[in-house]
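Pasting as-is:
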Amino acid sequence: MITAVDHVQLAAPPGSEDRLRTYYVGVLGMTEIPKPPVLAARGGCWFQAGAVQLHVGIENDFRPAKKAHPGLRVTGIEAYADRLTARGATVTWDENLPGHRRFYSCDPVGNRLEFLEPVGRAERMTG
């Protein structure tokens, strides 16, 4: 039986780790966590915020997905969007999910990320 999502794996081109660290740590406010040595030899980086982990692995023929993305729940979505914008990230708001405020942003290699926060009735039901 599935009980939780352990992590989400994203991909990135070779040599992009420093740009990824700048974005995931400096812009999003996540913490880089060490990869086990046998996996670290493959490149890439892992990041965590609370119970959420994003693993970014290296893919030689990398192409960012146009539609696939992790959906990351946040609190204080307006302030969080302001944080991203102030640090140079593009924020694209989308009002098409009832009961939620949400926006999209892309990491430096083009991975699409969704940030959402329940509002109104949905917030009372989940919070």
